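Researcher: Structure prediction, please.
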Amino acid sequence: MRHTRILLTALTLVVTALCAPGCAGTRTGLAPEKPSSGKDASVGRLDDPSFVFSRRTAAGKRLRVKALAYTGCTTKSKRSPRGAWGDPLTPDTKAVAVSPDLLKMGLDHGDRIRIEGLPGEYEVLDVMHGRHARAIDIFYGDDRCGAREWGARSLTITWQ
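Model: Predicted structure follows.
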């Protein structure tokens, strides 16, 4: 259902841009702009679907995800926690776990991501359970209270 709605919205935008010049971003009362060289137009390159529908920015790819938090504390094991690829997760490690669908979108082990509202970069060192979609888990070391305070949020991540 959601994909159908997105497809119809995209189709409507393209048809509007092609059939009704002047209403896709120009303002009335202004002199018409000179045709551009093809690379930069006032409203973007509407004739290039990869430009219009891509999630790339100057900083890389952007994606809105659900962000959770987790710790490495367990009462059963005395060993230090490890990520899905065997990387040790120490309390000072800035690591995230990603849902399997994000791996299919291009994120991979060792990639560095920036998380909206948090300083610095986080490294992908773990994978979440398959029931999660478009989600990341931020590693909080041994800080259970901090992880609980974080809760679940919706935010944007960027990566190369």
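Model: The mean pLDDT is 76.
Researcher: Thanks, that helps.
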